[in-house]
Write a structure and sequence with these properties.
This protein is of the alpha/beta class and about 210 residues long. It is about 35% helix and about 15% strand. The strands form 2 sheets. A 5-stranded parallel β-sheet has the order 5-4-1-6-7, with helices on both faces. Helix 3 (about 90-100) runs parallel beside helix 7 (about 200-214) and helix 5 (about 140-145) packs across helix 6. It is globular.
C-alpha cells in the first residue's frame, strides 16, 4: 500500500460529480465489537476502557493489558481471516444509498493488504459495494491525490482525529466529519472543533448531503 492515489477512472468514478471519501472501521462498521469478539475467541478479553486497541486486550483475570507487541499478530490475523464478520453501523448502508444519488462514494480504509478481498466482500454483502482504496498511515496525502482528479465539492468521514486533521491539512477545502459508530467507544473518543461530529447516520447523512450539494 502507498499514499500514491489511484486514478479515479480506474475505480469506475468519473470525477465529474461531488466526491465523498468514507472510512470503514467505526464509521461504516463496528470494528471494535468485531475485533473484541475475535480476541475472545482466542481466549483473551477485550475491555473497552479507552480509545485504543491493543491496550484494551487482557488475559482473563489480569489487570495489566497484553504487551503491545502481542496485539499486532492478533490485529493481522483478524484482518486476514475475520474482518468480513463485523456488523454494519446502524443506518450507514441506507445513508450511503441516499448520498450516492448526489455524489460519488469512495471507501478509503486503513487496512492491511490481505484484508482487501474480505473487505470488498463485506461491503457488497451489506449493500455498500462502492470502490475501495486501502491506505496506510495518514490519509491526507492520498485524499489530496484523489480529490485533485475531481471537480467537487468534497467531504471526508473518519473516526480518528489524526486522519481528519491530516486531510484538512492537505486539502483544506474538504468538509470533514467525525463519526464513532460504537456507542461504548464514543465517550472515550477525542473530539476537535475542526471536525463536526455526528454519531447518528441520519444526521451525518444530512450533513454530508448539505456539504456536497452546496
Amino acid at each position: 500500500m502507498t499514499n500514491l492515489a489511484p486514478r479515479l477512472s480506474d475505480l469506475g468514478l468519473s470525477g465529474d460529480r461531488p466526491l465523498l471519501l468514507i472510512d470503514v472501521d467505526e464509521v461504516l462498521g463496528l470494528f471494535m465489537q468485531g475485533f473484541g469478539d475475535f480476541v475472545a475467541a482466542q481466549g483473551l478479553e477485550f475491555r473497552m476502557e479507552r480509545f485504543a486497541l491493543f491496550q484494551n486486550i487482557y488475559r482473563p483475570g489480569e489487570t495489566t493489558h497484553l504487551p503491545l507487541e502481542q496485539g499486532q499478530p492478533l490485529f493481522d490475523a483478524f484482518f486476514a481471516t475475520a474482518c468480513h464478520q463485523i456488523e454494519p453501523a446502524e443506518g450507514a448502508p441506507e445513508a450511503l444509498a441516499r448520498l450516492s444519488r448526489h455524489a460519488e462514494i469512495l471507501i478509503l480504509s486503513n487496512a492491511p493488504k490481505p484484508a482487501e478481498a474480505l473487505r470488498r466482500q463485506w461491503l457488497a454483502a451489506h449493500g455498500m459495494d462502492y470502490p475501495l482504496v486501502l491506505n496506510s498511515g495518514p490519509k491526507g496525502p492520498i485524499a489530496q491525490g484523489l480529490i485533485a482528479q475531481a471537480k467537487g465539492p468534497f467531504a471526508f468521514v473518519d473516526d480518528l482525529i489524526s486522519n481528519l486533521d491530516s486531510v484538512s491539512d492537505h486539502a483544506p477545502h474538504v468538509a470533514t466529519f467525525q463519526h464513532v459508530a460504537d456507542t461504548r467507544l464514543r465517550g472515550f473518543a477525542p473530539v476537535s472543533d475542526r471536525h463536526p461530529r455526528h454519531d447518528d447516520w441520519q444526521s451525518l447523512g444530512d450533513a454530508l448531503e448539505a456539504a456536497v450539494r452546496g
